[in-house]
Amino acid sequence: LGRSLRVLNLSGNRFGEVPPVLLALRGLRSLSLGGNRLHGIPPDIQELRSLEFLYLGGNFITSIPPELANLPSLSYLVLCDNKIQSIPPQLAQLHSLRSLSLHNNLLTYLPREILNLVHLEELSLRGNPLVVRFVRDLTYNPPSLQELAGRTIKTRNVPYAPSDLPENLVRYLSLASNCPNPKCGGVYFDSCVRQIKFVDFCGKYRIPLMHYLCSPECSSPCSSASQSSTSQSESDSEDEASVAARRMQKVLLG
Amino acid sequence: MEQPVQTETWKARSLEELIRILHGLFSEEKVSVEEVQELMESYESNPEEWMQYAQFDQYRYTRNLVDSGNGKFNLMILCWGEGHGSSIHDHTDSHCFMKILQGNLKETLFEWPEKKGNGEMTKKSERVLRENQCAYINDSIGLHRVENISHTESAVSLHLYSPPFDSCNTFDQRTGHKHKVKMTFYSQFGERTPC
């Protein structure tokens, strides 16, 4: 059964977690656990390499593990009617995704990487407290000494070998993220500026997308000058908007 | 057939009979909304009679044309997978009857947005329609969103639109902005019609 079962529908039951035995069903193409009592998704969901259809609507899920993005054939993902507060940017790696259902959750913004889902044809976002006005995160916690050292090592390409550093620091250095500002070329670890920009789809729907920048002085890829005025940042989104609009014309279902 | 003094109470004993009586009603100059609604509601859903039109799509709800009513109306079957829903939409000045054939559908009514509206649209009411119930809406009543909120059961509904229309406006709930869309059929008369 492990390799032959293709479709499994366990919707409308009382599962409090995804039964671990299911993760051994390597041939599974379609899995529904809709209308259960799941509070999370196990990272080992990535074991279901053949999965194309995953229905998890109507549970109590609060967050999505980035490992979900390691399902190469996933084309239909339903996460509606849960308690999800944010989408990991890694989900943009789901290149086969055609339909993403996120309605009735607790999302205030989406990661800007969502624009990379070129095959996405259906996206539902209604019933989320999406921010409608420009939001600038005014609190910026200055980087720690460890972070400053880590940034220097990365941007100056200071050579190091695993034998030079304690294992935890080697791991820390591997978690550097690149600042999306093309003029910056910097990296950040934990200290970053969150900024929300709006992308307007064909004049019909404005989606707030979250950018992470390495410092308040940085600006996001499409913006030119200052970020202090609202109207400036709205027009900054136009380049991004026209690209996004071309790709996701039919997508939004409100 | 002699013109009745008051509206008749019809009983459709099969889908075929329903269609036949509808053709009769719509061949008249005036059609009574109450009469059509009662007639639609009187038909007791029998899946064997409409199964051939109930073609589901994995990703979204489908519209499957059943009868084109001699140009006076369109009768179609809509198939809703778990969690499938429509956007908020209007009905292009036509009458819209919606009868549940299987499962349940939630209908949320909205007020028309203000002319230069830039705020959240106002919800008027919502209800869950049960099997065999028939709802009615037109533009003067308002706008609505229809969804299958079940995570375990699919739903099937029978819709009558008169006069027929192939485009309508969809509305963004957060801003009231509208956007004209063309509507297409997933299948017609039981045959899959890719567009």
TrEMBL record, chain A:
The keyword Repeat applies. SUPFAM superfamilies: L domain-like. Keywords: Leucine-rich repeat, Repeat. The keyword Repeat applies. It holds the Pfam family LRR_8. Residues 221-234 have a biased composition (Low complexity). Residues 221-244 are annotated as: Disordered. One of its GO terms (cellular component) is cytoplasm. It comes from the Eukaryota. This is Leucine-rich repeat-containing protein 58. It comes from Cuculus canorus.
TrEMBL record, chain B:
Pathway: Organosulfur biosynthesis; taurine biosynthesis; hypotaurine from L-cysteine: step 1/2. Fe cation binds at H89, H91, H144. Binds 1 Fe cation per subunit. Its EC number is 1.13.11.20. Its cofactor is Ni(2+); Fe cation. There is a cross-link at C96-Y161 (3'-(S-cysteinyl)-tyrosine (Cys-Tyr)). It catalyses: L-cysteine + O2 = 3-sulfino-L-alanine + H(+). The keyword Flavoprotein does not apply. GO terms for molecular function: cysteine dioxygenase activity; ferrous iron binding. GO terms for biological process: L-cysteine catabolic process; taurine biosynthetic process. The keyword Lipid biosynthesis does not apply. Pfam families: CDO_I. InterPro entries: CDO_1 (IPR010300), RmlC-like_jellyroll (IPR014710), RmlC_Cupin_sf (IPR011051). Keywords: Dioxygenase, Iron, Metal-binding, Oxidoreductase, Thioether bond. Coiled coil: none annotated. Belongs to the cysteine dioxygenase family. PANTHER family: CYSTEINE DIOXYGENASE (PTHR12918), CYSTEINE DIOXYGENASE TYPE 1 (PTHR12918:SF1). Catalyzes the oxidation of cysteine to cysteine sulfinic acid with addition of molecular dioxygen. This is Cysteine dioxygenase.
